[in-house]
Amino acid sequence: MPQLNPSPWFFIMLISWMTFSLIIQPKVLSFITMNPPTSKKPEIPNTTPWTWPWT
């Protein structure tokens, strides 16, 4: 069964992960985000109870 032969696919997977980990990931992580997270407290919305007409 050719599916069980890891010879060609394991090497391709290894090269792919090495490329991603060593080349692509540092480039992507070096970008500066346009909207950096802030340390603002979340606002609690002012909610009013709903008055049901049939109660």
TrEMBL record:
Its main location: mitochondrion. It is a single-pass membrane protein. The gene is ATP8. It is found in: Mitochondrion membrane. The lineage of its organism: Eukaryota, Metazoa, Chordata, Craniata, Vertebrata. It holds the Pfam family ATP-synt_8. The chain crosses the membrane at residues 6-24. Belongs to the ATPase protein 8 family. One of its GO terms (molecular function) is proton transmembrane transporter activity. This is ATP synthase complex subunit 8. Keywords: ATP synthesis, CF(0), Hydrogen ion transport, Ion transport, Membrane, Mitochondrion, Transmembrane, Transmembrane helix, Transport. GO terms for cellular component: mitochondrial membrane; proton-transporting ATP synthase complex. GO terms for biological process: proton motive force-driven ATP synthesis.
